[in-house]
Input
Amino acid sequence: MTLGSGGRVDDPAPAVSLPEAPPIVSEAAPAAAGPLKVKRGKPIQGASGLGWMFSAPALIGLLVFVAIPIVIAAWVSFRDWSGLVSPFDTEYIGFENYNDLLFQDGVRRTDFALSIRNNFYYVLFVVPMQTTLAFVLAVILNNRFLKGKGFFRTSYYFPSITSSIAVTLIFVFLFQTSGAINAILPFETINWLDNAHGLFHNALGLIGVEEPPTWMIENGFMGVTYWQWIAGPSVAMFAIILLVTWTSIGTFMLIFLAGLQSIPESVEEAAKVDGASTFQTFWHVIVPLMKPTIFFVVTIGLIATWQVFDQIYATNFGGPQKTTITPAFLIYFQSFRNSQAALAAAIAILLLLVIMIFTFLQRRLIKSTGDV
Amino acid sequence: MRHRTYVVLVLLMALIAACGDGGSTDTTTAGATETTTGDTAGATTTAAGEATTMAPEEGSLEGVELSLWGWSSSDAENTALSDLVAQFSEETGAVAAFQPQAEYDVALQAALTSGDPPDVFYVDSFRLPDLADAGALAPVPEGAVSNPDDIYPSLREAFTYNDTWYCPPKDFSTLGLVYDPDVLEAAGVAVPTTWEELAAAAETLTTGDAAAVAGGTAQAGLSMGVEYPRWGAFMFQNGAAMTNEDNTAMTLDTPEAREAIEYVAGLYQDGYAVKPAAVDSGWSGEAFGQGKVAMVVEGNWLPPAMAADFPDRNFAVAELPTGPVGPGNFAFTVCYGVAADAANPEASWALVDYLTNEEGSLAWTEAFSVMPARQSVAEQWISAHPELEPFVAGADYSQRWGFVPGFGDVLSVFNTGLEGVVDGNMTIDQVIADTTAAGEGVLGG
Output
């Protein structure tokens, strides 16, 4: 801990800067303040104009492709818009779309609840798995004595730059009934991608809970029974979880690697001199120093996993039995297959809220374990 | 110093929020973005169109630009339609072009939203209610389509919404029982014509469970998608249907419908029928092509798929078996719709009529396996495709494939439920109850 915060006692600012930057950057802070500013913080004549000019391309891009579409999506979600006419010719219907999704008993609410359940389990598995594995890989690759680093780095990164659809199709072949996975595993031959059984249900079955308690199937929340809520990811969803974890590890490994390489050797040496074992050095020195990077990776991971679409679309189109539908998939389905574009916009806004809540919780969680 | 901390924090939060958004609204923004591109493309066409419409005289289409949008099915079909459209251009002087779209639904939606739709575009009968309801389609003007009574009534009905006829069908397909004649003969099985015979044939032809079939060491009797567009035909054969004829009320909760679902589900539960995914195939046609199954229930799209992917596969087509009440089938069809705000309605309808009149519909379908929508040329089509005659026979008793806007939700409940029945974790009563509730929500009954 002492070592972790040692580098930045005087200025907390860099601690929250983007974690891609080296975590120990006490000298970077004054540099960031820039030569364009005078000591007292009074801008030089015309400097703010220059600043705007330089950031204009990025800002305009954000405005046109992100900010304005969000505002339009939010506006559209309150209207009765099929997506087949100009949205300006539509009627204002208040919160009807949201009501359908959240409160009104019916297929829309059930579908939305199922999509949230499916995606929640997906996030629950993918984010920890990809973060841990990527971190472990990065630590191994950061070893000074490892030979052929370039080769490993490239091969781990390769899945990330391959088209997600191509990777998905290969996984479809691997996980099908006559696929390689079934050939290797000594279990009953199943088609993984066509199996709707929940993993938690299966686990409960193993310990003898075959029949759910009656209250769990008679009561529910948002049109989905409690028994269904605790189903866990379906076998099909689990195959997708494995696929996505495998694909995304490379990118996060690279980010971790950049973070690890910015930790000066002297820090590790100092720990050694203090008598720390390899594990202690790792757990009490490296991990705390990597916290900003971990925060970044988990945040990006959370945001990306709540938006999973390609893999869902290409494996089973939301099936089997809707156990792989996700909010992003529902947005597509409602907008382009069911001509309910305003409803899709409402789902998009709700998904945004979900992502914000989870990012916020995650931030609080990481913060509570120490400074970030 | 503290102040700067907050600025950085706020920026970071904004960035996170921005990232979150970019993707979450992806599908919606994608539409919006494409709108812009569609806009410019459309604008150029209209601008050019308006510039030239001033020149032609009454009745002449000289120089009128027309765009026809559709999805791309095969190179051969794209070329054939392009040729037909080019012929129209040559005869009338119009400048018409067929422009197949890669992501058709998305592209059309973007074009409609931006107010610059193509003049003429494909409309699937299932999509018709959505488009008609949105006011995107122009109704057929009196006399614009030659000899409308010649068109199969069920196909005209498929493009009629709220008593308004919107567009003439381009062609159509029905379902048939496609089988491997060699396998049936070797097993001594006659082509099934009733439910009992189908069940018996499927049983005899099944030589192993789904895992063995997937592994290529056994054969299943029948492969069929677990969805209403297949199972519905069996419901019709038992005098049942999901909705009444006007699509105003759900009619699923009847003994007839239950009996039909029980019959079909039984085939799967006994292992004589498999869903394509269970034997590692994307669709039944693929399972059939790979020789994993002896019979499939598919439509006119199967022969070209076989020719393309499994040219050596021997197959024959029979009419669907007759149920306890009678025959039943679906007619899947697509029409040429004219945009409500087409720049040149007259020229657009002239093109549509050219493509769908006796001559046009035969010219279009003769080289392919889809059938002409006009009864007067059915005989000529059959003489070109004698082996596909059972599909034409299906036209006599087929029902339309189309409901009301938003009905996709209901079908997804039904199809999901059927999957559950086949997998053994849902009961038929549950499926009927869930679907009826969902349907009543949409139909308002």
